[in-house]
Structure formats: C-alpha cells, structure tokens
Amino acid sequence: MPSPRWETLDGLSIGAYRIQVREEGSAGTAGQRYLAFYLEREGLRSDRPILRGLYAEPRPRPIPGWLDGFFRNPIPFQGQLVELNDADLQEFFRAIGTLIPPGGWLALAYETFGESLAIHQETEQALRLGVPPILTPLGMCLFYADCAFPIRDWSIAEGWREGPRKLQGFRPREEAHYRRRAEALREEIQAFLRRTQGSTRPEFLRARHRAEQLLAAWLPPEG
Predict the structure, then answer these.
(1) Minimal CA–CA distance to 127: which of 73, 204, 68, 181?
(2) CB 3.0 to 4.6 Å from 102: which of 13, 21, 98, 173, for a disulfide?
C-alpha cells in the first residue's frame, strides 16, 4: 500500500495543537520538495516550523520515499517557547512516519550551525560517548516514526551533498527484516546496559532510562 501524501497531515491534531504543512518550493528533482511542518493552536501558528526538510515522494523501486529534515523542540510560539511532551512527541513522529514507505528513510540532523537545542546537543554528546543511536533523543524520534531498523549515524559526511551530521533511520521492508533488525538492536542495547552498569554519568543514565522503556514496552519478545 502506498504511503499517504504529505497533504494528509495538514490539520492533523497532535495534543493541543494541529499540524500545518507548508510547501516551500521544489528541489529541482522530480518528486522532491521542501516542506515545513508548523504547530497551530486557536488559529495561531508557531513562529518557526517544528520540522523542516526535503521530502521525496515514493517512486518505483529501487527509489524509496524519504524525508531529510531538521527538528526543533521546543519551538517559539507567539514569542514564548513551547515544547511537545513525550506523548505528543510520539504522536507527531508516528504521523511523520506514515509518509515513509517500507524501505524508505527519515533523517534528523543533530548538527545545527548555530541553532543548537538541548535535543541536538544531547544527541551529539551521547553519540560521542558510544551510546547506541536509538537511545539518543533524536534516535527515539526515529523509533516513534518506525524508522529505526537500522539507524545510521552520518557523523562524517561522505560528500558535500549529505549536508549536516545526522541520524538516518530506515523503515523495514518486511516483517522478517524488522524482526532480524529488532533482535540485533536488542543485543546492542543489552550490551550497552552491561557496559554502563553503575555509571553515574548523566548521558548514560538518560540513555539507560530510554533503554529500559524500549526493552519493556516496544521490542518484540525473545524466542
């Protein structure tokens, strides 16, 4: 079944907000366009988009659909900063994930060139310390979008076209692929928990909390 077009997200409710999607121009390649996702409440729109990026519509294989973006949380709203709570964050990225077809990918930048927020700083620092990408703040966003099987850390771009450093998460093509990736991910997370047992480093403590959430609620059972 094809993924929905981005227009289907315009007006979608997320907690106390609605999503407003605005097209900001074509990239010059067929099927690619720049999109900005704003939050709207009581007829007022956020001062800046919560997510902005380049979107490629799904095309016949082997070309998947994808979204390469920059996510802000919190964002300025009528001069005040507002932040999606965890439940709304999950709901937002579940909606974004519907745009990505099996085999496609979602990328979120953590290199921000002067716009760095805590979510970007913590992601970068955790990656430097060897935390598995899925246990970083942006990695969890990719997981909520069902685009975490696997996650690739573009810490060193292979050419100027890749843009800023980012996490790139893939949506599995099929159930069997998902289960293989999920089991490998389980082993990676458990190895991290063993390695950091007893650590009081804040980055590890936050990552361990995310790991416990994943192992308890989301990853498929062993066996």
Answers:
(1) 204
(2) 173
- Residue 181 and residue 187: Cα distance in Å, rounded? 10
| Backbone CA torsion sign across 143, 145, 147, 149 | positive
Is residue 5 left, alpha or beta, with left meaning phi > 0 and alpha meaning psi from -120 to 50? Answer: beta
Q: pLDDT tens, 72-111?
A: 999 999 889 999 999 999 999 999 999 999 999 999 999 8
68-92 burial code (b ≥16 CB/10 A, e <16): bbbbbbebebeeeebebeeebbbbb
Beta carbons within 10 angstroms of residue 23's beta carbon: 12
Q: Enumerate helices (H) and strands (E) in the chain, giving the number of each.
A: 5, 11
Q: What is the pLDDT of residues 131-144, one digit of tens each?
A: 999 999 999 999 99
Q: What is the pLDDT of the chain when averaged over all its residues?
A: 88
